[in-house]
Amino acid sequence: MSDNNNFDPSHLETLDRDLGRLSTLEQATAYVSRPLLGMGLALLFVVFAAIVAALVFGQADNALIVVIAAAFGAYMALNIGANDVANNMGPAVGANAMSMGVAIVIAAIFESAGALLAGGDVVSTIAKGIIAPESMGTSASFIAAMMAALLASALWVNLATWIGAPVSTTHSVVGGVMGAGIAAAGFAAVSWGKMGAIAASWVISPLLGGLVAAGFLWFIKSNIIYRDDKIAAARTWVPVLVGIMAGAFSSYLAVKGLKKIVKIDLTNALLIGVAVAVLVWLVMIPVIRKQSEGLENRNKSLKVLFGIPLIVSAALLSFAHGANDVANAVGPLAAIVQASATGDFTQAIELPLWVMVIGALGISFGLFLFGPKLIRMVGNQITKLNPMRAYCVALSAAITVIVASWLGLPVSSTHIAVGGVFGVGFFREWDTERRLRKARSAMSDLPDVAPEERRRRKLVRRSHFLTIIAAWVITVPAAAILSAAIFVVIRGITL
Question: What is the pLDDT of residues 23-55, one digit of tens each?
Fold first, then answer.
C-alpha cells in the first residue's frame, strides 16, 4: 500500500523519454541499414547471374570467364536501372502524377517487357561499331577488352549515380569499348568518324530535347493557360495534344522498340503515327469534355487533364528504353559468351535468352533498389515540374528520337529527357522575365528587381545544371581511361 502512495509520476516521464530515444535509435539504425540492405540484395543478384552462367556453360573450357562476365553484366544492368530509368519516370513523379512506388512498379514491368519482348536479338557490331573486332587479333584479347569495357562502364555509371548525375549508359559503354580497344590494338582500331558523331550528339541531344519541350510548353501556355476561358481552350487543345503524343509514341515504338517483332522503316512508322494520332484525337474529344465538367477556370484544374496521358507516356518510354538499352548491359556479355563458346568474335552476335533475362531483371532490380535517388533529382531538383511541363518533357523525348532517326543522328535518350527538363525550366525563366518586362512597361511605377534577387529567382538550379553537363562531357573519356586500365590489369593476370 505504501508503495502505491509513494508512486512518482516522473518515472513515467523518464520511461517515455527512454522509449523515445530507443524509437529514434531504431529509426536511425533502419535509415543507416537501408543502403546496406540494397547493396546486399544487389550482390545476391550478381551471384545469381554468375550461378545461371555456370549452369548454362557447365564444364566448358571457358566457363569461368563467362561466369565472371555474367557477374559484370548483372552489375551493369543494376546500374542502368539505378541511373537511366530515372529519365523516364522522374518527370511524372516530380509532377505528382504518380507516387514513387507506382512509378517503380510501372517502370519495372515495362522495362522488362521491352527488353524481353522487343529487345534486339542480334548485335551486328560491337558497341555500335566503335572498334573493328578483327583488329583485336585473338579471341582472348577480344574477351579481355569486352570484360574491361563492361566493368569500366558499370563502375562509371555507379559513380555518376552516387554523385546524382544522370549520364548516358550508351556513352559509358562506348567509352569503355573505345578505351579497351585502344589499349588492345592502338588508336587505329577505333572508328573515329563514329566517335565524332557520338561527340556531336552530346550537343544535339539535349538541345533538340530542350527546344522541343520548350516549344510545346510555349504552345500550352499561349493556347490554354493564358486564355480567359482556360477550360474551353483545354477542351479544344488537350485532345489534339494527347493525339500528337499517341502518334509520336506509336512512331517511336515502331522505329525503336519493335525491331525484334517486326521491322518497320521510318516512312511507314510515321504513317502509323499519323493514323494513331487522328484516332486518339477523335476518341479523346468526348473524354476530355467529360473530364472537364465542373472544373474551375484556373491552372490547377488543368493538371487533372494531363495526369493519365503523362502516366501512359512514362510507361511507353520505359518499354522503349528496355527494348533498346538492355543491349548496353548485355551486348558485351553476349560478345564474350559467343567468343568463349565458338572462338568467333568477328561476326554478328546473338543474344541468348538467358543473357536477356539477366539484363531485364538487373534493370528492374537496380531501379527498385537504387532508382529513387535519380528519379527525385530529375523530377524535383533541376526545376519544378507540374503535369503540363512533365508532359512536354515526355513528348519531347519521343519526337526528338524520331527526328534524330530521320536525320541519321546518334542521340542519347538520357540527354534528350534531361535536356527536355532543362528546356522547360529555362523557357519558364525567359517567359517570366518577358512578362515582368511587359508589366513594367505598362506600369512605370513598378520597382526594378535587384541583380541578387534576379539570381535568387532562377527557376533552374545552376549547380545541378553544371554538374550534369560536366558528367556528360567526361563520360566517354572517363570510361575509356578506366577501361584501358582494367584491360591492362586483366591481360597482366591472364598472361
Answer: 554 454 444 445 677 788 889 999 999 998 888
**C-alpha span between 408 and 119 (Å, rounded):** 21
C-alpha cell at 430: 525567359
Q: Cα dist. 195→8, 265, 306, 348 in Å?
A: 78, 25, 39, 21
Going by pLDDT thresholds of 50, 70 and 90, the confidence category of residue 163 is confident
DSSP labels, 295-316:
--SSHHHHHHHHHHHHHHHHHH
**Phi/psi of residue 291, nearest 5 degrees:** -65, -35
SS3 1: coil
CA distance 186 to 207: 33
Mean pLDDT value across residues 418-443: 83
Give the list of residues 6+ apart from residue 494 with CB closer than 8 angstroms, or none.
140, 144
State what percent of residues in the chain have pLDDT above 70. Answer: 82
Distance between first and last Cα of the chain: 86
Query: How many residues does this entry show for the chain?
Result: 495
Is the CB of residue 335 less than 8 Å from the CB of residue 128?
A: no
Residue 85 has pLDDT above 90, yes or no: no
Contact assessment for residue 265 and residue 318, using Cβ atoms and an 8 Å cutoff? no
Please say if the pLDDT value at position 342 is more than 50. Answer: yes
Please report, for residues 45, 118, 387, 408, 430, the alpha-carbon distance to residue 393 in angstroms, rounded to integers and kept in the order given: 33, 24, 10, 22, 17
Mean pLDDT of all residues belonging to the chain: 80
Going by C-alpha positions, the residue among 394, 243, 235, 248 that lies closest to residue 313 is 394
CA-to-CA dists, residue 158 to 166, 216, 245, 274, 366, angstroms: 10, 34, 33, 40, 11
